[in-house]
Amino acid sequence: MMKTLLLNPPSFDGFDGGAGSRYQARREIRSFWYPTWLAQPAALIPGSRLIDAPARGLSLDDVLLLAGDYELLVMHTSTPSFPSDIKVAEAFKAANPKLVIGMVGAHVAVLPDASLAASTAIDFVGRNEFDYAIKEVADGRPIAEVDGLSHRKNGSVVHNRDRAMIENMDELPFVTDVYRRDLVIEDYFIGYLLHPYVSFYTGRGCKSRCTFCLWPQTIGGHRYRTRSPDSVASEIARAKQNFPQVKEFFFDDDTFTDDRPRAEAIARLLGKLGVTWSCNAKANVPYETLKIMRENGLRLLLVGYESGSQQILNNIKKGMRIEFARRFSEDCRKLGITIHGTFIVGLPGETRETINETIRFAKEINPHTIQVSLAAAYPGTELYRQAAENGWLLNQGAGLVGGSGLQVSSLEYPTLSHAEIFDALATFYKRFYFRPRKIAEITYEMLRSQEMMRRRLREGVEFFRFLAERRSHA
Prior knowledge:
- It is globular, with a radius of gyration of 22 Å.
- The strands form 3 sheets. A 7-stranded mixed sheet has the order 2-1-3-4-5-6-7, with helices on both faces.
- It has 3 domains: 4-159, 3-Layer(aba) Sandwich (Rossmann fold); 190-434, Aldolase class I (TIM Barrel, Alpha-Beta Barrel), CATH 3.20.20.70; 441-474, no CATH class.
- By secondary structure, it is an alpha/beta fold.
- It is built from 19 helices and 15 strands.
- Strand 1, helix 1 and strand 2 (49-52) form a beta-alpha-beta unit.
- It has helices spanning 36-44, 53-56, 60-64, 82-95, 106-110, 112-117, 131-138, 176-182, 214-220, 229-242, 260-273, 287-295, 310-315, 322-335, 352-365, 382-390, 418-433, 436-447, 450-473; strands at 4-8, 49-52, 72-76, 100-104, 124-126, 149-153, 156-159, 197-200, 203-204, 225-226, 248-251, 277-281, 298-306, 338-345, 369-374.
């Protein structure tokens, strides 16, 4: 067994590049998702170690001290962080030339040739699901014999045969055991989740066909392959015991509510455990299912509304009707379910009017909190293909983040410039949050809890710094 280090590499200060992050960038407020997709192979490899450098605030010099202690290094990378991650790999290889280095993540999965051509420090890259592929390399199996990997041979890139998707998700060991061993859970903040929180996946894949969404089109696929309710409840029970300080559990599946009978079954088991939990959901969950989840500990739903324009929703194949989203939002309000709504500006068909339409829609349904992202065309997505074919990519899609790690607009249209798209994000936030109703809601929330008071004040300072920094980069 090779001594294995799994690394979420150091990057921009505050950069969230883990697989739980749908848009790899610095956030409005300091936020980190758990590196679950590195924790999964770490759980399969005895004696391995997982380091999440950004969340721990570790520099390259800090992690490079470990180069001589390991035989295999596996790094998670993303399109925005790839140039920086290559430099980390080269520094490790220089410090320990015998170190075998592999990269995993959506970027290398869809661009294996270009990724391997970027540096000879990279010995292999993982395509699609890589959990067992990494375990086989750690077990000492020759890279050329491991399904799902790409590597070099005699100066040329060789693609091993594709790896079969994991069908029995219950066979995977619990990632929360790795969290306990290697991570400090207090490092992980998400603005809309209680702190400290723990998140993990209960399944992979998403039935929806949203053209912009990265993971289903690159790693997870469009079949929702799930763990059994008993398996999920068992991990929550273990995590509850391991982390008595945790205030909330979050299920990071692309759409946890895709399988409603299973979601209801899990909810009933969680109700017996007496935990508070939240999950990703589509705005089409019926009242009856919402009620069952709420009665069994559900606190919050993260909902991807994306746009208030039906035409744009059609353009991106969201499979959602505005009127259903309104009804769903009202149902959640009646049941006392908090909503964190996510929106995107700059999707195909966007105009100044559709941006205003989306802002009006967001104010109407009034989620408790929102996240606004710039449309990003990641390689491997339908949006990237459309953008390349139609000439929407700015600088051939290079630069999804700026020099400080903030997200920038990489798309522009004949009727809407990238500068207008970039500016629309700040406008959206200001028009949503800087209104009497929302200020009153947040003030009331702060007055009810000293902890929330301290937290919202800190987040407010970070948010205004974020807006100021964006202005300086405009």
